[in-house]
């Protein structure tokens, strides 16, 4: 582009006090990585490209679907089933052909994250799941890259800048300082299940770009060491100050090798939090509780002293709704594996119920009952 | 003593309102325990707590008029 065109194109931001030609030159030199080209990623990318950021990487392994279109505004009806990263890049090139776009049609993983991220100056987390969020956070912490985070649900959004400090700040805070523990599988709800107002990720994605432009050009005060929460229903912006959490830092991988071997899927999606022991079940029995045996009808042995409903795993989804009303539900099977499957099957569709799976299954239960029965027999014979 | 509580995300849904007051909770541990008695579903959600706009780690003494925010993580994008 000619110098004259360049000055025309960015004129309105170059005349801003403290932004100027220097700010524009810094943007042209900058390399920004946007992970996730969805509700947050689309508007973030559009403004990054329009503003003249020199190099932009787009990471996404998903394809465009009809339910995306109410918020993922780079895509149109003719893009359905096409890869998001490639499609986004084509639209963005039409917007500003001077920007160099690197397309990664892949999911961010422990295998590729360090390599990809190390090529960029700033990273935007525009993903839609906890697994990727912890993974990206840890990679950015290890590589010491500023991370601009945002997340949305229903009518509410959060944003923050991690691994960055303004002049007067002493510490670099990251996502694990804010949320040391991932949400267990039962309450990890996505926009697919819970819904989101289309404009909300637009607002949050644009806030991410705003912070990115500030980080690159040095204008204003970056939202580091702070969490900003926006609520679309009551039009409120709340800002909270963050502090370092020493415990959470111990949970994260300490070097590249540990990072590559870290199992983020297990860390974030473990169903094990649904498991209860035989002792816990004994304590729960008095309360209003439904116990469902998901084994096939011919499987032996019967659970000792336990009144159960029989709903074989394959028929569970059909039978459950019509037959179960109590809010607490414990699944049991022979060894405790199918009962975890049962939890997995139903947990997202029945939010009014709390599901548990008996660890070790009927076999562990019967062994436990036999022991406690023997014990009480002995006590009786003493007296 | 009374503290003012702001509920965000799924916690607002569990509690059924975005703000309310509680009395006689001397620290944040006591608050968590009271909330889990009143709303057992909260046991399953990890959440961060801020006292007067500062997110705290560990237990924190509460005083009359403090504003406490309950902030769960969410992941949508």
TrEMBL record, chain A:
Keyword Nucleotide-binding: yes
A GO molecular function held by the record: molybdopterin-synthase adenylyltransferase activity
Keyword Protein biosynthesis: no
SUPFAM superfamilies assigned to the protein according to its UniProt record, in alphabetical order: Activating enzymes of the ubiquitin-like proteins
Domain Rhodanese: 285-374
Enzyme class: transferase
Protein name, per record: Molybdopterin-synthase adenylyltransferase
Organism: Planktosalinus lacus
TrEMBL record, chain B:
CDD domains registered for this protein in UniProt: Ubl_MoaD
Pfam families for this protein: ThiS (PF02597)
InterPro entries: Beta-grasp_dom_sf, Mopterin_synth/thiamin_S_b, ThiS/MoaD-like
SUPFAM superfamilies assigned to the protein according to its UniProt record, in alphabetical order: MoaD/ThiS
Lineage: superkingdom: Bacteria
This protein's name: Molybdopterin synthase sulfur carrier subunit
Species the sequence originates in: Planktosalinus lacus
Lineage summary: Bacteria, Pseudomonadati, Bacteroidota, Flavobacteriia, Flavobacteriales
């Amino acid at each position: 582009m000619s110098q004259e065109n360049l000055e025309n194109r960015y004129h309105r931001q170059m005349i801003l006090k403290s932004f100027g030609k220097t700010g524009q030159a810094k943007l042209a030199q900058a390399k920004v990585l946007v992970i996730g080209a969805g509700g947050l990623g689309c508007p973030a990318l559009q403004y990054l490209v329009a503003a003249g950021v020199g190099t932009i990487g787009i990471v996404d392994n998903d394809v465009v679907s009809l339910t995306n279109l109410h918020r993922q505004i780079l895509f149109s009806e003719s893009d359905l089933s096409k890869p998001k990263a490639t499609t986004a890049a084509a639209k963005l090139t039409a917007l500003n052909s001077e920007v160099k776009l690197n397309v990664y049609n892949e999911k961010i993983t422990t295998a590729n994250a360090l390599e990809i991220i190390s090529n960029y100056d700033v990273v935007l987390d525009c993903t839609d799941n906890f697994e990727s969020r912890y993974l990206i956070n840890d990679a950015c912490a290890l590589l010491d890259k500023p991370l601009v985070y945002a997340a949305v649900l229903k009518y509410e959004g959060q944003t923050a800048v991690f691994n960055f400090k303004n002049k007067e700040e002493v510490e670099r805070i990251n996502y694990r300082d804010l949320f040391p523990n991932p949400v267990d599988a039962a309450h990890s709800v996505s926009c697919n299940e819970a819904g989101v107002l289309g404009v909300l990720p637009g607002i949050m994605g644009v806030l991410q770009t705003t912070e990115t432009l500030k980080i690159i050009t040095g204008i204003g005060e970056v939202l580091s060491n702070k969490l900003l929460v926006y609520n679309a229903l009551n039009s409120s912006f709340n800002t909270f100050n963050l502090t370092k959490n020493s415990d959470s830092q111990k949970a994260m991988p300490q070097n590249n090798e540990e990072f590559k071997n870290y199992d983020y899927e297990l860390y974030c999606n473990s169903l094990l939090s649904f498991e209860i022991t035989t002792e816990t079940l004994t304590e729960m029995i008095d309360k209003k509780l439904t116990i469902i045996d998901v084994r096939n009808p011919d499987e032996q042995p019967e659970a000792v002293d336990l009144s159960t409903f029989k709903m074989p795993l394959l028929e569970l989804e059909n039978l459950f709704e019509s037959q179960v009303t109590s809010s607490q539900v414990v699944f049991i099977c022979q060894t405790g594996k199918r009962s975890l499957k049962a939890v997995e099957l139903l947990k997202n569709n029945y939010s009014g119920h709390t599901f548990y799976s008996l660890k070790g299954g009927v076999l562990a239960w019967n062994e436990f009952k036999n022991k406690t029965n023997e014990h009480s027999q002995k006590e009786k014979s003493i007296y | 003593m009374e503290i003012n509580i702001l509920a965000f995300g799924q916690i607002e849904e569990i509690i059924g309102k975005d703000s309310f007051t509680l009395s006689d909770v001397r620290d944040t541990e006591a608050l968590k325990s009271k909330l889990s008695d009143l709303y057992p579903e909260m046991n399953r959600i990890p959440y961060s707590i801020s006292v007067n706009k500062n997110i705290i780690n560990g237990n924190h003494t509460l005083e009359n008029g403090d504003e406490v925010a309950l902030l769960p993580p969410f992941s949508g994008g």
